[in-house]
Design brief:
Number of helices: 17
Radius of gyration: 39 Å
Number of strands: 14
Strand order of the largest sheet: 4-5-6-8-7
Length: about 525
């Protein structure tokens, strides 16, 4: 055993003794060592951490179709419930209708031009008059109950409450006197949970809408109230198939590839419900506290015997009246102190979050102007108005422009638009489609300063008369026509020309100053 160990040691020593050339050759080979893995993996972004605090936080992105399929029906149901029971939700819907549509609706301003490039005033007036006539309830609504202004308001509130609106365009004798009318539809009749893939012609159905392979809508499927009226049956469900060219479907797109809309209050609904429950509990507790209720308690030795039937003690409380209690009975007051000073701060904080999610100013949603100064209310109003302007343009693109183009075709072909006793020519359809839309606008916050700023901008050629008039929600041509009529009426009434000029904004120079200036010039 000793010999074997010595032999092993000698062999190792011989192997370690190398020639200088071998040592040099070995030193030329680079030594590579394996990199040690870190013991703890650190993410660049804290929001990407998957620890126990973020276990319920989604970590896999969902496509738009999956988001709609899972959440749309529930969100619409809860949004409708809040619209029926929550004052703040009802106030938001009222703000949507008032600020997007307004008292006059989104008005038409025809801008067609004649051959020479000048505005064709006669044709434009005829188009606007015909549009105003069709605007009436008996013409634009297939049921004859809603004017086009009312339809605009219903579409805006439907988009805010349900996330979308749907209309059907009706042509022919059933559409009323003009041969073209609109029918309001409930978007929930188009089933969001109905999908069908891999059809033979390459089309597919998503959320109750049939699309071609490129995503263009082909038809809409609506649930039938009577199976005998159904055009399409799938898995025991009856549907009415309406071509997409007859449906106006509008919604604000939040995701790329989104095919149905989500309620505008989707992120605020949970906080709305919690706040509503908090207010209910606080009001009930405050009423209980104000009632000064309590309990009756027997002292030892005075309570009823166990063999006897228990008798309920009842006392009718009256203001300023004290009742005598039976012997041995004590009154224990129940006086809850909640809510106290925490009610107002909590409600204010919750409403601020709700207002941010809805895109409106807290002061307008909560009807709270306490502690507001001019600068803050002005900045908040300007920011909110930009939000409303964006939604006004969305409604114009989604609804009004399409309705006008289709109405104009029918009106020109039927000869319903008359100018100078003659119908407008249908071959000038392209020229008559040149229009501008005037949504509602708001009064100046500081009229004196804003008017002075507008006048200065006009004098420095930084703005036009027409633009300032449009900023007030008026049609420049209508305003100028009214001014001309006012001047003509003042002249017919015998008002001197100098006073008419003064009424139009020109300052008058007194006669004695004019004569004095001329006499000084002569001397």
């Amino acid at each position: 055993m000793i010999w074997s160990l010595s032999r092993r040691k000698t062999a190792l020593e011989n192997e370690q003794q190398q020639t200088p050339d071998a040592a040099i050759e070995e030193s030329r080979v680079p030594r590579v060592s394996a990199r040690k893995a870190p013991t703890v993996a650190i993410r660049m972004h804290e929001a990407a951490a998957t620890d126990r605090l973020n276990a319920s936080w989604s970590s896999s992105p969902m496509p738009a179709d999956c988001v709609i399929r899972r959440n749309q029906r529930i969100l619409v149901a809860r949004s409708r419930e809040q619209a029926a029971n929550n004052d703040y939700m009802r106030g938001f819907l009222r703000m949507v209708r008032q600020n997007i549509v307004g008292p006059q609706g989104i008005r038409l301003q025809a801008q067609s031009r004649a051959r020479g490039g000048r505005l064709d005033t006669a044709a434009n007036d005829a188009i606007e008059d015909a549009w105003s006539e069709w605007w009436r309830a008996e013409n634009c609504d297939v049921s004859g109950r809603r004017s086009f202004r009312t339809i605009q308001g219903l579409c805006a509130t439907s988009a805010a409450r349900d996330g979308e609106f749907m209309l059907r365009e009706i042509w022919g004798p059933d559409a009323g006197p003009w041969g073209y009318a609109l029918q309001l539809l409930d978007p929930q009749r188009c089933p969001v949970d109905y999908d069908e893939d891999r059809r033979g012609d390459g089309s597919f159905i998503r959320h109750g809408i049939e699309f071609n392979r490129y995503g263009r809508p082909l038809s809409y499927l609506f649930t039938a109230t009577d199976d005998r009226d159904a055009d399409y049956v799938y898995r025991g469900r009856a549907f009415i198939r309406i071509p997409a060219r007859e449906i106006i479907h509008g919604f604000v797109e939040d995701f790329t590839g989104q095919k149905r809309g989500l309620p505008w209050a989707a992120t605020a609904l949970w906080r709305m419900r919690m706040l509503h429950g908090f207010e209910q509990s606080s009001m009930v507790n405050a009423r209980v506290s104000a009632s000064k209720m309590g309990f009756f308690q027997w002292r030892d030795g005075f309570g009823p015997d166990d063999a006897e039937d228990s008798v309920d003690l009842e006392i009718e409380a009256e203001p300023g009246v004290f009742r005598e209690l039976p012997e041995g009975v004590e009154f224990k007051e129940f006086n809850p102190q909640y809510p106290a000073g925490e009610f107002a701060p909590f409600v204010k904080s919750a409403l601020r979050g709700i207002a941010t999610g809805l895109g409106v100013a807290y002061n307008n949603l909560a009807n709270d102007l306490e502690g507001v100064n001019f600068s803050s209310i002005r900045q908040g109003a300007l920011d909110e108005r930009e939000h409303w302007k964006d939604l006004q343009e969305w409604l114009i693109e989604a609804l009004i422009e399409r309705v006008y183009r289709n109405w104009l075709k029918v009106a020109l072909l039927s000869g319903r638009i008359m100018a100078n006793g003659k119908p407008l020519r249908a071959d000038r359809l392209q020229a008559y489609q040149a229009v501008s839309w005037q949504p509602r606008r708001w009064a100046w916050i500081d009229p004196r300063a804003d008017v002075a700023s507008a006048v200065e901008m006009k004098n420095n050629l930084m703005g036009s008369f027409g633009q300032f008039i449009r900023d007030q929600g008026r049609d420049p041509q209508t305003v100028w026509r009214e001014i001309a009529e006012d001047i003509a009426q003042m002249r017919d009434a015998g008002i001197p020309e100098d006073y008419i000029l003064q009424a139009m904004g020109q300052k008058l120079i007194p006669r004695y100053q004019d004569e004095k200036g001329s006499s000084d010039a002569e001397t």
